[in-house]
Protein 1
Amino acid sequence: MPTVNRRDLLGASVIGLGAGLAGMGAGALIERETSAPPAAGPDTAGLNGSRLEPFHGRHQAGVETSPQTHGLFLSLSLRPETDRSGVTRLLRLLTEDAARLTQGRAPLADPEPELAEDPARLTITFGFGRDLVARAGRRHVPDWLAPLPQFGIDRLRPELCRGDLLLQVCSDDPTTVAHAARMLLKDAEAFTRPAWQKAGFRRAYGSDPAGTTARNLFGQVDGTSNPAAGSADFARLVWGETGSGQQFGPRGAPPTDLATDYPDWLVGGTSLVLRDIAMNLDTWDEVDRPGREFSVGRSLSTGAPLTGEHEFDIPDLSATTEAGLKVISPVSHVARSRNVDEPAEQIHRRVYNYHSIPITGEVSEGGMMFASYQASIHRQFLPIQRRLDEADLLNAWTSPIGSTVWAIPPGCDAGDYIGSRLLEA
Amino acid sequence: MRTSRPLFPVISAGLLSIALSTSLAACSSPATSQDTSTPGSTVATTASAAPQLTLTDGWVKATDEDMTSMFGVLTNGTGADIVLESATSESAGMVELHETTTDPSGSSTMRQVEGGFTVPAGGHLALEPGGDHIMLMELREPIEPGGEVAVELVTSTGETIPVTVVAKDYSGAQEDYDMHESEH
Ligand code: HEM
């Protein structure tokens, strides 16, 4: 079998190289090779290339979808000459590409169709910026589809705050992401110019059981308090829909009117605030564990609130120590971001870490693409962000460098295209 | 945009849905698909309601030059070979069926195919860059990305099959232009 041969060859050359270079790793390598059970064939445990996420439906995929390992955010600016009919043609082309790619089928005119064969849960999510919506008619633009107000913590770089069309490309396979992005960008080229792009990652598929809350680059368990996919909370908080379930989180039932101001073309969609937040890993290194846990109000090992034992225990923001101090500091990230009295003030965070190794200079550069989905930016995101801006211990190590706001239109059925209700309104 | 007015009427969502459902059906079912929703099935056929010849995954290379090529998968839903003999289009002054041949030195040349494309009974013929394809020449207007081009396929028995294909930016299939230049 060719795969087996290739692997044997590879193993042999690695051992040869190790021995030749230093000799130290070679022994260990050989030992591992010989103690391994004889290869009966290719290792097929955990094969996930053929896994699919549906493309068509009431909502776009990539929002409620359990986050894939790799996420790429492509922000595109419309060319000045791209008018309403151009936007329509663009969205038809990209929708058709996305419908095929996510289902493991090569788009039309794909010179590398084999790269489409392993979608690994590929999702492609479209976000519309203010100017794209305006090209269909200014009256269609919701008032919140605009830059966020300036915050004191912001260190925004203007070039990271642009774009009219967002493509969020997520998959458990990075080659799939690269291929999908290339196919989309080639079709977008006549209508748009790249504004910025950022790739991020989470724990790889298979590293942890599915559903495990991922850790960010600070080592924190991040995402615990998100509304659960498929829950009534999620339906209300993200899609602005009543939902059928009656079970709500500890804060009680969120209101059902968070999206009542949506124009018709956006019903079934949501909003996305995308913040590119630099995380200073070098100064975070200087903080000891108690200090780190204090800044968030949760344990690093389990993600449990400092007032609890398990990850999903409810933080008790009023609990005090014998000395009369709050166990969870009132200026910790959790205390500041969590409003126990207001069930509307919850968001769905679907974040991707990024990390790069500069050629010279700092040890490394890290951060996260903080993707916050919520039905209402005014009633959900902004009150939280304002409080964090006023005070949040975590601000000492984090600074927003990019910020964009997107309308996530509803999904579409087969034969239709994303945004049709806007462009044909 | 290269021209201010749309080149081709933007097809209705309904037509697009037909085109899409056609290609979906063609992908999920074998060659002998009994898909009756294809544009090709509107052709007067003999006893069977099955489409005689259909084109799925059709596309044309967007261009602002005066010629381009069109691709897709031809499927013969009948039990007898079908010969695609010619094609016409409102968008082009001249349409030809071309094949690409590679000589022993590895260089490929294109020429008009003699006798048309034979689509085998119950089988497919892929029209693709570097292979068989349909040349649209003397284009009346540029073909914009995302635009639609209507083409009529004509079989050796004189049946016409109207198809609509989408235009895509594509930097391959350069041999078309080489050939064009060598003609002069
Ligand atoms: C790099 C920046 C950030 C880091 C490292 C970070 C980290 C964390 C961590 C570790 C948690 C606790 C676990 C959890 O519930 O997920 C958390 C919770 C939370 N964060 Fe952040 N966060 C960041 C930025 C933000 C921003 C910009 C916002 C909103 C404007 C935000 C809103 C929240 C909310 C709402 C919660 C849940 C609070 C609750 O209801 O219990 N975070 N974050």
Note: Residues 295 and 332 of chain A are 5 Å apart (CA to CA).
Protein 2
Amino acid sequence: MKYVIIGNSAAAVGAVEGLRSVDPEGAITLVSNETYHTYSRPLISYLLQGRTDRQRMKYRPDDFYETNGCRTLFGRTAVKLEPEKRSVLLDDGTALTYDSLLVAAGSSPFVPPMAGLESVEKHFSFMSLDDANALEQALFPEARVLIVGAGLIGLKCAEGIFGRVGKITVLDLAAHVLPSILDEAGAALVQRALESKGVDFRPGVSVKRFSGGSAELADGQALAFDILVTAVGVRPNAALVRDAGGETDGGILVDDKMRTTLCGVYAAGDCVLSHDLSCGSARILAILPNAYSGGFAAGTAMAGGEPAPRRTLPMNAIGLFGLHIATAGSYTGEVYQAQDAESYKKLFYSGGVLRGYILIGDVDRAGIYTALIREQTPLSQIDFPAVCREPSLIAFGRAYRDEKLAGKKD
Amino acid sequence: MKRVYVNEEWCLGCRLCEYHCAFANSGKTHMASALMNVKIRPNIRVEDDGKVCYAVSCRHCEEPLCVTSCITGALTRENGVITIDGARCVGCFTCVLSCPYGCVRPTGQGAMQKCELCLTNGGVPRCVIGCPNNAIVFEER
Ligand SMILES: Cc1cc2nc3c(=O)[nH]c(=O)nc-3n(C[C@H](O)[C@H](O)[C@H](O)COP(=O)(O)OP(=O)(O)OC[C@H]3O[C@@H](n4cnc5c(N)ncnc54)[C@H](O)[C@@H]3O)c2cc1C
């Protein structure tokens, strides 16, 4: 069997490990337009902070490709899929044939059209090691940095460069930071942490026009800056599949074996639509755990194996300036809330199951809540008030513990 | 494969397992100097609500969500044992968010820690050796 994987990140690595769990022999070729050994994308901010380095941020050991018998074609871009010929065309004119192919192309930064953006000399995205290296080159101690977008990537970027520049201003059209994963009250805690460090956050505002090192804001104010980072959002890299006639709807459509609608073509990771079991609908779940597990399932299926059923949901763990945040699922239904000086907790439940949560400060044992959402455990079967107060296995009862902790089957 | 199992009916709630675990992983040679006046962070924890009590530690799951979710590749499962490479871990807490048993926790120095079955502490888990009532055992089931 001949396998081709487009991509070299979490979904691609998952696929290699999935493939090898079934087929130790088949030929695997990895194609990536990045030139590096597989690295952990989320660690680019930690790299700028000095909390990791190029060696330690590798997602897999140095001998990963060798151990798994992978041929690598790095620095090459896949430009066209020809599913009827089971072939993929690369930018240097090479055509690679395959028995099955995985698109693990991830996502790209979305840069909205903003007037005068081309006049900004130092403008960066914050998605890749190349981006991080380029941004680092531009940093200087007095630099005024403007970050457009207060989502996860924008704020991680702020943390990454904090202490290496003079001033950081973050602005967002939304009314608070991390709008896709936090409510207003939770976001206020994070904003306080940012502001206590001197990061200037401006909610509810956008840039009307750039001219060189100045941004004219929608509220009429002008902001001078030396370095601009845009982190407004990401878009799935679905074009390869879409242009070949495969179905997409924002992201690539896949079934439970990660098959696209194109024969012999699979897809996984940030480029696909996933099933969010916390709300029952299809969404882009651009998180690394989802990329790895989707890739593993795809690899297993490509090699003819039966992938284990996946239960996917949004979940994020973020540390920002020493404050820890854990969130998962959907924020609908009734709410259990608790707050003290150091922590903030909201649990959302409806239809007899836990749907989502927000934890800030104290995130100890958050996975017990995640499991309740993932397994859709009927709350009537557990001591829900007890687990609301504190995540522990007490609430699950003796039979559960006998199975999980004592290895008893019945 | 041998694992740590708990016999809930035998647990006295004495928490000696927590102390033995913390000592075993402290790198010190004397229990008193290892544990005196420190807030211990054992990898096994006793849950006790006044009515029931038992110890909880890593299950070394066959399909480990902490490993598949790890954003750095610091968590791995080899020969049935899940271990963490503290040098690669950046303390992002994704494993804490993923573990259904709440068995990964911060070291307090940036990285995460978890039960590694005392692989480097002589091979028999110290919580098991230190349990006075056979409520924690290391065996095949
Ligand atoms: C700053 C930052 C922080 C993050 N923090 C977290 C976090 O804390 N937790 C979390 O869960 N997630 C986090 N994420 C998201 C996480 O990085 C992604 O979900 C994950 O990397 C997705 O993996 P993937 O394999 O699907 O795609 P990607 O990592 O995007 O990799 C896709 C690869 O395919 C290559 N490629 C694309 N198109 C082609 C082509 N046509 N030809 C050849 N190669 C191609 C790309 O260059 C890239 O190397 C973060 C992301 C960023 C940017």
Note: DSSP finds five helices and eight strands in chain B.
Protein 3
Amino acid sequence: MSAAPARRTDLRYRLGLNARAVVGRSYPRIIGANREPSWIVFEAFLPLLGIASYVFIYQAFGTRTIAAIVANDSLTQAEREAAIAGAHLWVNALVATVVLGGTMVAFWLNVLWSMASQLYWEKEIGNLQLYMMAPMNRMALLGGMAVGGMFMTSVRALSTLAAGVIVFGVVFQVADPLSLLAVFFVTLIALYGMGMMFASLYLLWGREAWNLSALMEEPIFFSSGMYFPVGGLFKIPGWGPAVALAGSLVPATLGLDALRQLTLGPASQAAILPLAPVSTELLILCVLAVGFLVLARYALAYLEVLAKREGKLTSRHQ
Amino acid sequence: MSYAVETRDLTRVFAGKKHRFRRKRTADEADEHLGPVTALDGVSIQIREGELFGMLGPNGAGKTTLIKILATLLLPTSGQAFVAGHDVAKDPFPIRQRINMVSGGETSGYGLLTARENVWMFSQFYGVPSRVSKARIDELMHVFGLWDKRDAKVRMLSTGQRQKMNMIRGFVTDPDILFLDEPTLGLDVNAARIIREYVLNWVRSQKGKTVLLTTHYMAEADQMCDRIAIIDKGKILACDTPEALKRMIRTETTFRLEVDAIRDTASFSSMQGVKNFSLTNDIGTNRSHLTFILEDEGPVAEILSLITSQGKKVHSLQKSEPTLEDVFISMVGRGFE
Ligand SMILES: Nc1ncnc2c1ncn2[C@@H]1O[C@H](COP(=O)(O)OP(=O)(O)OP(=O)(O)O)[C@@H](O)[C@H]1O
Ligand SMILES: [Mg+2]
């Protein structure tokens, strides 16, 4: 007696449905970034304050080194000029390292604070039940959140990068733009894949997860080498390499290391202490990206069932 | 025969809260917060396609729990539920394609987006093409009187305007089965009327559209629903057309009294021939309104003498046709507030 028309279920329909869902879910973020433009100015310049202290320290070291070179009488004029050029290159590499770190920090903070706790907050607002009730794929929901977050954060990161270049006079040297783009995007996918996985876990842990984010923030800044070449950790005997390896699980670490190698030219390699060749890092990043996405998918599927069983998918007061 | 919604012995138990902090609790708290709660207790209902079906019950009766299970947001503890012929626990996708849900007092959406953008966003999760979605939204905005506010940010909308937006969200995906959980909660008379009329017309004018509606407003249920289930403490007490429900208590007699405010009502319930009664106090006039469901007219004299013996005056006495509310009082043993 079904008078209601049959609904489509074919592959084309599903692809269309989920593509629309991704666009729909990313829309508030993308619009949000445009709707309050004053906010972009803050977002671009605030991180600069955070990295300025590192930049000044590196610059001060550079100034002292150059002063020492100038004062050294045993050098010939040619040797002196070469040494000074070397010192400038070294300072530029370190400052560039910090600016790149400051740029990528934006993505990491977005993943940690916004992506990860997104589903939890959506539940509090009352959106989550409406999302979960819809026919879209759960990965489209997470994907939409990620795309929106990436877009919004890219605006912020790009402005930080531009401001860093202008304010601190960093010189970048890109020989292989294709690899650079590949590394950047694979890093983002891996990073947001990790965020999607966290989002699923946080759905069940709720408020406690908030503390976990706070707990993770600083140590990961350190172990990922956001503000210094992570290869430096390997020079620390004992715990250094262990911390660096653990930090490498966060996709920002390897991504950042590869980005530094790709933007600073071969002459600066000595200053940035690469962890591994770019190709190796890209490969690992690909594995991490796929791994996190698969984990996120299964984590959410599992936790959705668990939440539906325990009655935790919807906030109580509704 | 296939049903739009069918449940078989559906039961849902919520586990009790774990002791986080050890402290003494009052008996009331212990009752409410600890120990498992049986929100649904062996519910079996069948809702036919094209039906406007109402659920009537006091707070905590299990109405929202039932809707959440049917909307694939909550799993049954035992028993089964089918929506559009599919098992909610095993096969949610085809159900999700065909349903939508709107609850009263919902705060969904993003404050930064406009009303129109919000509804559009939710329609995208159902794969509604943008052009179709936008046309429907504009039309519905006119119908619900929200057209003036179409480009207002959601955080600027009043409660009622927000609820109208939520209703539009429910209709924009063109569902076959719509769950409405107290949709007119907190709306003014006019807004509530617009919503009732639209829902009624939506079900009546199209084939294969089904609505499951929960409400606290007896008149709303009476006026709108083809059939009504009365639910209390997770159990269905009765399920029939509003007329049949009222006929069920026609052999009983309903009396309404307005008297000086009284407190002592215990003696009424022990009176012979009193099936049930309810009491509401009107603080403004300092009077009590009493509704008695009596087996026959016998106890009226006794009731009156009991009231006057307390020194209270009887201001009015009226024998009346049973309303849905009387049915409810007769079954649940208390009125609706
Ligand atoms: N997630 C949950 N965890 C624990 N108990 C719950 C949960 N959701 C509902 N309950 C309990 O289940 C019972 C039924 O709740 P439900 O929300 O279904 O009632 P209702 O009929 O919708 O009431 P109202 O008219 O107040 O909306 C209540 O006792 C409630 O406290
Ligand atoms: Mg309810």
Note: The mean pLDDT of chain B is 88.
